[in-house]
Amino acid sequence: MTDDLSRAVRDLIRGQDRAALACLLPDGAAPARPYASLVLVAFAHDLSPLLLLSDLAEHSKAIASDPRVSLLFDGTQGLDQPLTGSRVSIVGYARTLDDERLKHRYLARHPDASMYAAFRDFRFYRVTIERAHLVAGFGKIRWLGVAELASSPTADALVDAEPGIVAHMNRDHADALDLYATRLLGLGGRGWRMTGIDSEGLDLRLGGRVARLALPAPVEDAAGARQALIALVGKARAA
Hints:
The chain has seven helices and eleven strands. By secondary structure, it is of the alpha+beta class. It has two domains: about 5-150, Electron Transport, Fmn-binding Protein, Chain A (Pnp Oxidase, Chain A, Roll); about 155-239, Split barrel-like. Strands 1, 2, 3, 4, 5, 6, 7 and 8 form an eight-stranded antiparallel beta sheet that branches. The chain has a three-stranded antiparallel beta sheet with strand order 9-10-11. β3 (about 40-45) and β4 form a beta hairpin. α5 crosses α6 (about 175-185) and α6 crosses α7 (about 220-239). The longest helix is centred in the C-terminal third of the chain and has 17 residues, at about 155-170. The protein is globular and about 65 Å long.
């Protein structure tokens, strides 16, 4: 698979804030039954999907019994013929996590979840991806291994700097975020906020809408991110 296609798949996945979760629901002595549900997702810097689920939900009971899951990320919204669009199904294992930085990343993506994230019957999960299935329209179908799907590892320096970058942009450069959304992504509205940044792009949110903006080139630290964000402002103003 080409690097461009690999990047497009990652951007499609990261651009979603929800997915269809499929798991195996226990059925007593009978074989487990397939069960699908809607979940909200965020992502670790390595692309691992992050979930926040209630212990009372059927999918949580299923994962407790069998951690094998699949997530469908749908990139066909708005197309007159949805089956000509791209979608990606990932398969892997869902396990609870206790990483505060990843929890923060999820809550930045879904701020309303902070109202119940601390409840004793809610748990965060990280899905370890084993492989992915891409359907990019009629006849454009293939499986992707983890090595094909992976980008260059995000430097620890950028992971450490991310909360400060996000807070700074939201506090001091709200106008730049609106320029990114309106001039570079063609979206409407004002008041867009940054929810995260990784080596390849940044994530935006306005109410119930989310957007993904690619960076001009991969970045590794706060200085690189600053240069990229400034370059995007210049590009937006010139658009």
